[in-house]
Amino acid sequence: MKRVFAFGGVGGALVALLALAACSIQDAPRLGTLVVDVSPDSAHITVMNGADLVDYGYGDVQLAELQPGTYAVTAGNGPHLYTASIEVRARETVTATIQLGDPSTMQLAYGYGPFGPASSPTLSMLRYGPPGGGGGGHGGGNSGGKGGKGDTYGDLWVIYRDADGAPITVDGLDLDGNPVLVDGEPVQCVQPVASYAVDPTNPDPTTELLTLVVSVDGPAPKCEPLEEDLPYLMEVDFGRLNLVRAPSKVLQKAYDAAMATLEASEEAITTDPAGRLVATIDGELKTIDSPLENVALYEHLLRTGIEDGTMTLGTITLPRPVLEVAAALFAAGSDKSGTIDLDEVVYINEFMGLNVKDGDPYYTHYSGYSYDRQNRYGTVRAWVLVPDPENEGSYISGWVNVYEEVFGEQNATGSDARGFAQAANDALQTIIYVHDHPAPDPQPATP
């Protein structure tokens, strides 16, 4: 005989509510939260889940509704990057506290829920180079004998380069002034440019090059600066362009997203004042302004379009010369502050493996390129916030001449890799200006 239980009255209602609550808890999304508290605030943070880029930016991060799993948190600036694996648990908040100091003293602690930070896990400093490992002697602090001997990817400094951006190296010497050989050939050392005059009477410190000394204490020779020269070294700051260090799947995903927008354009692709690509979607202008998407498009152009000499990007016809578009793409992947210089361009290409072709160094992406700021921006207009000529202290939307407002009618020219770096920097300054002077009214047809 079956027994049937019936619940009635207040007790029955309470049991029913408890049962409903239990079901609700069971059916609730099993998501977690990741909080990253980093010091200093200027530190660059990237959070990835497998090949998926979850977040990037500067300073503290709080990410809610994350799927449980292991997340890679990368922190640091320039070439000094550290990574740690953090487990995100369902219905819990994990708080990671990162203290960045000297590269050898970075500390990380994390804890879950109401509990305090746990013991620090093991951290490692990430060294990056082109595919196949090593920097091939192309970065600051490297040594590399011919044929790739002694490859280690160290600090990235402003160094002496030729017109294509390739490092101009010298035979490495030890402390006694003797050449250091690997397989019978001298180790090659780059030549860092002094940040200011070692000789105070020298009016142009860029003519002063620092000499690196070859150390053979480790498993491979390494070119290192003298202790007295350390204050004169200039490290390159990559800022947001550290995105290029993301896995290839991340860049491919960003490229696909950008191309989907461009291919959906109802009109021919145009450019904004800085040269960023603009599509027309549902009758409205859509600028490709995602830093990651622009970096992905830049990489694709350098791998295909520039070498082929074509004016296309996938199935898209480019509205401007390919290297001019590439410069704008590079700029759009950079921070909306600061500047772009030759060393930053070459190192970013290094990170993406673009400085190697068929196993040999390759730096001729920009050979033959010529840039003239006045020719590029002399007639370019931008729709921005401008002073109201009829009401002092008030502002309205209006057109300005970029060459006049952004560059003060000061021309700049350049050729080859340096010309490209100048073009990228000018595009960045235009992006910054437009970003800092947003027009409140929709842009009318270009006058």
Question: How would the blueprint of this fold be written?
Answer:
Elements: H1 9-27, E1 32-39, E2 44-49, E3 52-58, E4 61-66, E5 69-77, E6 80-88, E7 93-99, E8 107-112, E9 124-126, E10 143-145, E11 170-171, E12 181-182, E13 185-189, E14 212-215, E15 222-225, H2 248-263, E16 270-271, E17 277-281, E18 284-287, H3 291-308, E19 312-313, E20 316-317, H4 322-332, H5 342-351, E21 356-357, E22 360-361, E23 370-372, H6 373-377, E24 381-387, E25 395-401, H7 402-405, E26 413-415, H8 416-436
Parallel strand pairs: 1-7
Antiparallel strand pairs: 1-4, 2-3, 2-5, 5-6, 6-9, 7-8, 10-13, 11-13, 12-13, 14-15, 16-17, 17-18, 19-20, 21-22, 23-26, 24-25
- Helix percent reads 10-25%
Biggest beta sheet summary: 5 strands, antiparallel
Specify the overall morphology. globular
Tally of separate helices: 8
CA-based gyration radius: 27 Å
For the termini, the CA-CA separation is 90 Å
Largest beta sheet: what is the strand line-up?
3-2-5-6-9
Q: Unreliable stretches, pLDDT < 50, 5 or more residues?
A: 1-10, 13-18, 24-28, 114-154
Number of strands: 26
What is the domain total for the residues? 3
Structural class: alpha+beta
Mean pLDDT: 78
Walk me through what this model shows.
- The protein is 23% helix and 27% strand.
- The protein has 447 residues and is of the alpha+beta class.
- The strands form nine sheets. The protein has a five-stranded antiparallel beta sheet with strand order 3-2-5-6-9, with no helix packed on it. The protein has a four-stranded mixed beta sheet with strand order 4-1-7-8, with no helix packed on it. Strands 10, 11, 12 and 13 form a four-stranded antiparallel beta sheet that branches.
- Helix 3 runs antiparallel to helix 4 (322-332).
- Residues 1-10, 13-18, 24-28 and 114-154 have low confidence and may be disordered.
